[in-house]
Design a protein that fits this description.
The chain is an alpha+beta fold and 340 residues long. 41% of the residues lie in helices and 20% in strands. α2 runs antiparallel to α4 and α5 crosses α10. Bound molecules: 3,4-dihydroxyphenylalanine (DAH).
Amino acid sequence: MSAVDLEALQADGLRAYAEAQTLDALDAAKNFYVGRRGALTSVQRSLGSLPENERRDLGARVNAARAALAQAESQRRHVLEEERDRVVLAAEAVDVTLPPRVPKLGSLHPVQETMEAMVDVFVGLGYRVATGPEVESDWFNFEALNYQPDHPARSLMDTIYVRAPGAEADQQGVTDLLLRTHTSPVQARTMLAQPPPVYIVAPGRVYRADIADATHLPAFHQIEGLAIDTDLTMADLRGTLVELVHALLGDVPMRFRPHHFPFTEPSAELDIWLDGRWVELLGCGMVHPNVLRACGYDPEEVQGFAFGIGPERLAMRRHGISDMRLFVESDLRFLSAFPA
Ligand code: DAH
């Protein structure tokens, strides 16, 4: 190789380093000129075959070229590294003056919130919360509550059966299993499990073979109430329910209207005056002696009252909601209107 060629090689190398726009490009250029198979390296290897005087001369030039390239490379590397650090620092910069991003908090579903407000009223009156299973036997859901065998509520039209009436008994001897149509079976479960007196409320989910519309859902909620003691009268029932309505809806007019339920006698519905008309709020009555007997209580010694309230209806009244289906559609625009 001539001195001129070597100068050209060095000049090419210096230009390639200067033009490298990234550290990777610089590494590639470095490898091309001074790497193990680089252009300058192969010149250096060829030195051995030269005569002594030429070798010394060319060797000194190659060393000078290598030194010039090494210096240019390290200067360029320094510049490119600074550039890279500047970009990374800018990308990772944290503006500590920005307002914090607060995670969105959920809130209680309006039906749940209404149920809890109702339960709170009764707990304040000394009631205990009781529960029962959603898959219930025909005996607790109907039989113990004095429903006659041919009562229309038992028909497949209203009741969702898990095991149809008349099916073979299982190992526990249970024949009919159903999704409870009301929370009233918790009355029977509670009385069978403890002696009087009883003061319980039982909030929970209930099921009916209904199509969802503005005022019905196939799965909805109830709060059952049961009070059994030695001298309870309808006046106590009335006073208790007045307490509830005042706590939740304020001083609205109410009336008791005669009604019929198999498990209470007498029975009534409680209406409240809202938006210029009477609106049915709940069913109630004095517990039927047959129910007390079925649950092992003596109707000569104890008596009491029961009531069943639909919290969906009450939540609709409280919040001015006109379609019950909104409660189950999980539309966040609706749900977020009820902050915690
Ligand atoms: N279980 C009734 C229903 O689902 C509601 C009800 C009415 C419950 C009167 C009661 C009661 O405890 O006394 O329609």
